[in-house]
Structures are given as C-alpha cells and as structure tokens.
Amino acid sequence: ESVSLEVAGRELVVTGERAIQETEGRVYQQVEIEAGTFRRVIELGADVAAERAQASYDEGILRVELPLQTGQVTTRVPIEGGERDGD
User: Fold this and answer.
1) 40 vs 36, higher pLDDT
2) What is the pTM of this model?
3) Residues 53 and 7: beta-carbon distance below 8 Å
4) To pair with 68 at 20 to 30 A between CA atoms, which of 12, 13, 55, 76?
C-alpha cells in the first residue's frame, strides 16, 4: 500500500492506493476498499505542531502522533459596562 499524510489546518488528510490482493481460499463478509485510491479527512480537535508530527506503519496499523501546538497564550478579556455586584 502507498499511503501519505498531510496536516492542513485542523485536518489530517490520509491518501493512498491499495493494490489488488490475491484472496484465494479466503471469504470476507465486508471489505471497505477492495482496490484503488482512497482519501480520508479527519477533523482534529485542536491546533497541532505539524512540523513535529510522526507516523509509523507496522503489521497493517498506521500510528500517527500529532503533538499539540504549544506557546499559545490565554488572555483574559475584560467586560466593560454595567454595574458590578457589591459596588
């Protein structure tokens, strides 16, 4: 199989191509993709540091590590107007 990964904003895009495999003597109930190209887009729940991403493929399992983006600063936003309790 030929697989590539790309991080685009808050999406992980997995593309690839699966070759036709000989299945002599095997019976399958369901096969997601028999052969050909595929593309999956996975929405990420947070910003990631794409430059530090790592991926490995072993025994049919694709493992992707996407570290969270660091260095983001949380800023408190003051609310203007109105009366405060106790004033």
Assistant:
1) 40
2) 0.62
3) yes
4) 76
